[in-house]
Amino acid sequence: MDLAKDQAIGAVVLVVCVVGIAIYGALVFEIIPGYSLLILQLTGFIAIFGILGIGAWIGWTMATTPPPKPIEEIEKEIEAEESKEEKQEPLTTEQKESEQPKTE
């Protein structure tokens, strides 16, 4: 059985996850006695910590990111650039050739 590297890694992940599920189930349903309450408390804490941690990260990002420019200001900049380009006359081919440095 010749598996590609990605498939081999996928198989390892599958096995590790199935074993993790089995161990978690054994601890929660007291197949191994004495750990079910602790495991449930840790599971709840980790889940809430993750959700609130993501919320805190979003809040931090929103609080520390400067506000964007108003659309009106962006439109004025675009109009200024367009009018600047319109004022410049396009160079003819002869003008372009005369401006290029001659190499000999």
Judged by helices, strands and strand pairing, the structural class is: mainly alpha
Order of helices and strands: HHHH
Rounded to an integer in angstroms, the radius of gyration calculated over CA atoms is 32 Å
**Can you tell me the overall shape?**
elongated
Total strand segments: 0
Instruction: Assign a percent range to the helix content.
Output: over 70%
Weakly predicted, low-confidence segments: none
Could you characterize what this model shows?
With 104 residues, the protein is an all-alpha fold. The protein folds into two domains: 1-34; 38-84, no CATH class. Helix content is 74%, strand content 0%. The protein has helices spanning 5-28, 36-64, 71-87, 93-99. The radius of gyration is 32 Å and the shape is elongated. The relative contact order is 0.04. The mean pLDDT is 85.
